[in-house]
Design a protein that fits this description.
heterodimer; A: alpha+beta; Phosphorylase Kinase, domain 1; Aminoglycoside 3'-phosphotransferase, Chain: A, domain 2; 2 domains; 5-stranded antiparallel beta sheet; two-stranded antiparallel ribbon; 40% helix; globular; B: mainly alpha; 6 helices
């Protein structure tokens, strides 16, 4: 293997060709490499692969996702994302088809997976204040699909699939506590100074843990920005890096966070809160407790604050030379104020 | 700010030099980028974080720690001891004020954990009074920080345009 660098397209292309040759049993031409700017953690590279097999010439548009050893959540595992895409393939949750994955470093110097490149653009949740991210007809169409895909995910029967391994020991009573503990541990690992507001939030979260109505597959980062849209249709739900077993309302709380809507009345710029609760409940069969959603909105804001601390730490240590990480650190105070407001129910 | 000033300067200089300038095709634009790089290298040893807000952080922290100590004077079990900080003076530098602020914040975190564990042993309302006092002080600080922070450009950063 040649040492792959995210910034060295030639090396990545060479290593891709070598990996694919072994997998498809033929010479593979790799071209059109494009590194996407989205994402602060995994590196996403689009490419085209051409080869010839028994049925004739093949040409595929593919995505390589690499978990860099120096990245935000390193050390990474490719399995959870691959397992989610693989298990959900053919379900009512639109996902790219997953082809290969490996935790070994021999191919690219990082855990990785390769999946189909799905047609569409990823609309972002960050728009100028006072502006809407979508015109009303598109917003309504996307909102319905957005909620339907989430409901389908939460109805998905994960027992008996590889997704069972994504939450050892999680049950209805422990789901919230496990997530608090996970993010609290990351804060302890990443923080290079104490944050009393985050400490207070931990105390509050521990004292207000809801009991889940069921354990479901939680996407962990379900929001505008993590789906592809084409012609008014959601073509794929992306970025399964934080997928785990947990309380389904965790994803609902994440959707409702101010960080993904600014001052818009539409959660994730898509749907008003009462309608979101109503439609989600209808489609998923999961009862929506507003208090539990508020809890998960607070936990989500805490989680996002911890990710910002982690980003700043990653930059401070010089592990990942990406100025976007330092920028995240700059906005931590704003997020901590949002966290307090969310806990106080001022959302 | 979350990152150190030194690392921010070093990071911007490194990224401009290694990742941005080599990709600029236009000679005039590249010259301007080198100018920015030169300026940053010269600014680096001449600047430090603004002392004013840090001084306020420390002064408010000391006052709060004193107030909490009074509220917990007879508490059992004994609460975490307050750090032995001297009052901040306007002559202290940012490099001296930052660790003082962090020690005070660490104490406030310990107090929050202690209060959560010993809530039942305190007089009615005392735990909430302490938590509210800490939140009030932190909120003032965070708002002061946000006032100094430009609106985020997350959209432009994500799109690269």
């Amino acid at each position: 293997m040649e040492q792959a660098s995210a910034f060295d397209g030639e090396t990545v292309a060479k290593n891709l060709a070598a990996f694919l040759r072994r997998r498809v049993g033929a010479e593979v031409a790799v071209s059109g490499l494009r590194r996407y700017t989205v994402g602060f953690s995994w590196i996403t590279i689009g490419f085209e692969a051409s080869w010839r097999d028994a049925s004739g010439p093949r040409h595929e548009n593919l995505i390589l996702r690499l978990g860099p050893p120096e990245g935000l959540f390193a050390p990474y595992r490719a399995f959870p994302q691959f397992a989610a895409l693989d298990a959900l393939s053919g379900s009512a949750v639109p996902v790219p088809r997953a082809y290969w994955y490996s935790e070994e470093l021999e191919h690219f110097g990082a855990p990785f997976f390769i999946c189909e490149k799905v047609e569409g653009e990823a609309p972002l949740p960050w728009v100028a204040e006072g502006r809407e991210a979508f015109p009303p007809p598109l917003r309504e169409a996307l909102a319905e699909q957005f909620v339907a895909a989430l409901a389908a995910l939460h109805r998905f029967e994960w027992r008996g699939t590889p997704l069972e391994t994504l939450g050892p020991g999680v049950d209805e009573r422990s789901a919230a506590a496990l997530q608090i503990a996970f993010w609290e541990a990351l804060l302890a690992r990443w923080a290079f100074r104490p944050y009393p507001m985050l400490e207070w939030a931990i105390v509050w979260l521990k004292a207000h843990r809801p009991v889940a109505s069921r354990v479901a597959v939680a996407h962990g980062d379900y929001r505008t920005g993590n789906f592809l849209e084409s012609g008014g249709r959601i073509t794929a739900i992306l970025d399964w890096e934080l997928v785990h077993l947990g309380d389904p309302l965790e994803d609902l709380g994440w959707i409702c966070m101010r960080s993904f809507r600014g001052r818009s009345p539409y959660m994730c710029h898509l749907i008003e809160r009462p309608r979101l609760y109503e439609r989600y409940e209808e489609l998923s069969g999961v009862p929506v407790s507003p208090a539990a959603v508020q809890f998960y909105e607070a936990l989500g804001t805490f989680k996002l604050a911890v990710i910002h601390v982690g980003a700043a730490r990653c930059f401070e240590d010089g592990r990942f030379k990406d100025l976007r990480l330092a920028v995240m650190g700059v906005h931590l105070p704003r997020l901590m104020l949002q966290l307090e407001a969310t806990i106080e129910g001022k959302t | 700010m979350t990152n150190s000033l030194e690392r921010i300067f070093a990071g911007i200089i490194d990224i401009l030099h290694s990742r941005v300038i080599p990709k600029i095709q236009d000679e005039s634009a590249r010259g301007q980028a080198y100018g920015a790089l030169d300026m940053l290298r010269n600014l680096k040893p001449r600047v430090e974080w603004a002392v004013g807000p840090l001084h306020d952080d420390v002064a408010e922290g000391l006052s709060l720690v004193e107030r909490i100590a009074a509220l917990l004077e007879d508490a059992e079990p004994a609460p975490p001891p307050a750090p032995a900080e001297r009052p901040a003076t306007s002559r202290l530098t940012a490099a001296e004020l930052e660790p003082m602020r962090d020690r005070l914040d660490e104490h406030l975190c310990e107090i929050l954990r202690w209060t959560a564990e010993n809530r039942q042993t305190l007089p009615a309302g005392r735990a909430s009074e302490i938590e509210t006092a800490i939140r009030d002080q932190q909120r003032v600080r965070l708002k002061r920080e946000v006032k100094l922070t430009a609106p985020p450009l997350f959209g432009e950063i994500s799109r690269g345009q």
